[in-house]
Structure formats: structure tokens, C-alpha cells
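Subject — a protein and its fold
Fields — amino acid sequence, C-alpha cells
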Amino acid sequence: MMRVLPALGSAPVLRTKHNRTGAELTVTDQLAASADQAKQQLDAHVRETVEWHFNPETGSPFWLTKAQELDFDPRQAVTCFEDLRKFPLFEDEWLRGGPVRRWVPKGLEGKPTYVFETGGTTGIPKTRVVIDDFKIDYEMFSETLPDESFPAGADWLMLGPSGPRRLRLAVEHMAQHRGGISFCVDLDPRWVVKLLKKGKIAEVKEYSDHVIDQAVTVLSAGHNIQCMFTTPKLLEALAMRLMDEGSSIAEKGIKGIFCGGTEFTQQWYRFAREELLGDEVYITPTYGNTLMGLACGKPFEPADNYKITYYAPQPRAVIEVVEFDDHTKIIDYDQTGRVKLYTLTKELFIPGFLERDEGERERPHEKYPWDGVSGVRPFHELAEATTVGVY
């Protein structure tokens, strides 16, 4: 029987594959059923999330105030995911400056609250208040990691940015969730971006060396570190340093790495697996930010030729790939568009935000029965203005 899978925000699309003779085969009934179920769960989650954020008893001051500007009642008008398009695009400039308490839902008042920043190299940074979201996001991600490469009880090295960022605390929490301890380095990416903008390349190299010095020291101190988070630039720098010293990532005891950043390209993925790490060290790509959380990479398959496909943690977040000139229209599979993000948790409601990234729309996977995105890279209209720092 031919099955049609629901495509978010577009007409249903028959998803097919080809056998070796080129004949079309319909997708399995199991994947179609999983996609149907995921869509039903998403719609129910949307209704619950909207009710929470726009109920005067539980919603945040920001959204309760914003509701007065809308020409519809969200609690009545939003019954499924597609209805979120009734909202105007979320503007990240709303997150710049305070008071940050306007983002705390009334239903969560009194709980210990964190504030995480993004940007801030110049001017006032954007902020997000968080209570438990980063813990939930990384516990969910933890479930996707293979135990043989990320052993329970193993300690971690967090080789990434420190300071007022979600990432350090999130990795630390995940290490603790898995029974380990997280060791960190001291890294201020804002300073590096300032140096780059001033053209002080030699000083950037010195700062990078300083960060790698810290990592090598921790790895040489006799701890039980077997897992890492890092970024492509830092992983490459660490691997090359260890090679120069006659050692390697594997010889330092590392078994598993999860790695994120826009420089995690298809070409770099191959380079990392074949040249930097070898067969003994597992690496998995991730795509995330302060607003969304963490999108998982599709499990590695040789047939993909190192193509990296990410899937959002539905129903808590959704990724669409939309037309460059019309964010309400989803592009066809395998075509290029801009990444559009939705965040749907009790702590944060984002009913559509255009990321500074673009990529190709990908079909659902058995493990993640909803649309994904591959080839993520800076949005071409903004790429030249983007400064990539030490990480």
C-alpha cells in the first residue's frame, strides 16, 4: 500500500526511494506510521504550549503583553502546528536587554533561574532565561549517544566557550547525568572576535594555543576523561598538537566526541574521521544554539558519503527549511533554503524565527520521523559579515 507522509506546512509529499534497478519503492509503513504519530504528538504539544504561554495564570509577561497586539486569540485559534504561522516572525532583538524577568512564565516563578547570553562582542548581548530546559535538552541528547563510545561514569572534557553561555553548564550537566565529572577550559570567544576584527591574527593564534595548552594539561593529569565536547577548530588544533608531541586523541583515552559548529562540514567530517581520529574514536555532529537546544545528527552511514543531516528534538523544537523570499513556504526535498526555527517549551515560546543559516531539506529518518536539514552553513546574504572566532 502506498503511504503519504505529512510534511510540515506543505501539501503531503509522497516520499520514495529507489532500488538498484532504479524502480521506485514507497517508504515503509512503519516509517509512515511513525511520521503520522509524530505529527499528532507535535500538534498536541503545540496546543499545550500555546495554552501555557497565553494563559494569564501561567504565561510570561512578554507573551501576555504581546497577545494584546495580535488580531487573534492564540488559545482559540491555534489548534495545530501549522497555525503557528498566524504569529509574526519572532525577532531576536526582543531578547536584547532587560528586564529579563519578563520572559519568566508566571507558572514557573520562584524556581532557580539561569540567564544565558549569546553574542555580545559589541553592544548589549541577547539573553535567554532558563530553568530546566538545558538539562532536559541534554538528557534527551544523552539518550542518543552509544554507550560503548560514551561510557557511563566516564569523565568529560568541555573544550569550548566558558562564561555566560548555556553550553558549558549543559555539557557539565550531561556529564553528571551520565555519572561523570566535567573538566572545563577558560575560553572567552568575545575577546577572540575583537582581535580578529582588528586584524590581530598572531594574537588570535596565541590565544588558541593558550586554550589548547589547558586542554592538554587536563588530559595529561591522570583523570578518567574518555568523552569530549568541542568544535571543529579546537578539535583540529588539539589533534595536531598531540600529533606534534607524538601522541593522539585516542592515546589520551578519548573514546567519544560530540562536536558542533558551522565549520562542521561534509569535507571536515571526512577529514576528522580519517585523519584526526581514526577508527578508535567516535564523533557525532550536532547543531544547536541558545534558543533551540540541540539537534542530533543522523547516524553515520558510509552510503551518505559523510553528508551531515540534523534533526530537531521534536516536539520541543522544530526546524523547517523555507524559501529565501517567503518564510511561509517550505521548499521541496533536496532543495536549498533558509533554516526556520520553532521553540516550544514551557520556558520559551518561539513561533517561527529565521536563523542565520541555510541548508537542504531532508527526508525523515527511522530514528527521527520528521524533516531534517543538511549542509548547514551561514546564510549566504549574511556570510560575509559573519566573523568565526577561535571556536
Observations:
- Residues 45 and 294 are 18 Å apart (CA to CA).
- Residues 95-385 form a domain with the Rossmann fold fold (CATH 3.40.50.12780).
